[in-house]
Write a structure and sequence with these properties.
The chain is an all-alpha fold and 63 residues long. Helix content is 76%, strand content 0%. It has 2 helices and no strands. It has helices at 8-28, 36-62. Helix 1 runs antiparallel to helix 2 (36-62).
């Protein structure tokens, strides 16, 4: 596992990076050919981003 990201700017950069990766993935998928695996991966990525947002929000509340 990686180091904890505690700086708010680093947290935002991390989230932007994850969103860019998700957008790149979405752009590369052919809608007519997308299978269950691709959809599951998109849902997994969205869940990861949501969990990081919640974690970062909680970190801000603790400060």
């Amino acid at each position: 596992m990686g180091n904890s990201i505690s700086d708010q700017k680093e947290q935002l950069n991390f989230l932007y990076g994850k969103m860019e990766l998700l957008m790149t993935m979405l752009d590369s998928i052919e809608p007519e050919a997308a299978g269950v695996e691709e959809i599951d991966r998109i849902i997994e990525m969205l869940d990861e981003i949501e969990n990081k947002c919640k974690r970062f929000r909680n970190d801000l509340k603790e400060d």
